[in-house]
Amino acid sequence: MSTGRRPPASSRSRQRPSSRDRQRGKRRSSDLSARIVTALPAIAFAIFIVVEGGTIFALGVMLLGLACLQELYTMLHGARPVKLAGFAALIGLVIAARYGTAFHVLLITVLALPLLFVLTVARPLEAPATPAMATTLMGIYWIGLAVAHIVLLRDLPHGGGIVVDILVGTFIGDTGAYLGGRAFGHRPLAPSISPKKTVEGVAFGAVAAVLAVFLASTYQEWLTPGQAIILGLTCAVFAPLGDLFESLVKRSAGTKDTGRLFGPHGGALDRLDAVLFTLVAGYYVWVAMLPG
Q1: Residue 258 — very low, low, confident or very high, per pLDDT cuts 50/70/90?
Q2: Under a CB-based contact definition with an 8 Å cutoff, are residues 188 and 167 in contact?
Q3: pTM of this structure
Q4: DSSP letters along the chain, please?
């Protein structure tokens, strides 16, 4: 029989989420939905170029690399980077990776320095030369070399499958880190670089990355479970490093996003920062695991 007494206000507040909690939950759901919708065209593009392989893949990756490089140089425009040198080096690196070998990629990397010097002294002295050359070289070594390694990886035995595995591990791991950090994150990972990233989020992301690559390997007879776990761990380790690297550059430049290619979720460099690390590491890991 009811006593007719209402439960205490504190009890009612525990039973019903506050309007602020409901709004926060809606924002999280909306943010996740927007992430998924924004990612769909990028996923379709990635599948297309990976399946096609060859020159189509190299051109597709080169376009993404040029977009990332443009965003970086725009973000660091105060240093007056020598954009022509950066773009020429990236294109040369892609051509070397597609039609040559790792030796030719190294050769283009070496030649980029004298090319940068010539183009720097050939233009009007708008700013100190050293910061301009240093900024240009960062783009070449960070983005250009990564793009070249992605092309080299695709041309290895089962390279297309490995590229897909690493992409799956990287992006599923990122989603796991996002959800885990939102739900359980308390301890900041690197507060001076990226305050929102947490140790708990990285842990969830690592587990998600390993599981994602392991599950993907069940459809690939040529990839052993042990190799899949190693590739998953590669994603788990290098994806956060790539993310934090870009965050440090953005924080130094005083900007939140590198561009608007993906609408409210930033530019190409914002979406591919982890990939630029995981696919490079994945190349060397897969080379080490190949027989012979």
Answers
A1: confident
A2: no
A3: 0.86
A4: ----PPPPHHHHHHHS--HHHHHHHHHHHHHHHHHHHHHHHHHHHHHHHHHH-HHHHHHHHHHHHHHHHHHHHHHTGGG---HHHHHHHHHHHHHHHHHS-HHHHHHHHHHHHHHHHHHHHHS---S-HHHHHHHHHHHIIIIIHHHHHHHHHHTSTTHHHHHHHHHHHHHHHHHHHHHHHHHH--SEEETTTEEEEEHHHHHHHHHHHHHHHHHHHTT-TTS-HHHHHHHHHHHHHHHHHHHHHHHHHHHHHT-S-S-STTGGG--HHHHHTTHHHHHHHHHHHHHHHS--
**pLDDT tens per residue across span 171-184:** 999 999 999 988 88
Q: Is residue 267 left, alpha or beta, with left meaning phi > 0 and alpha meaning psi from -120 to 50?
A: beta
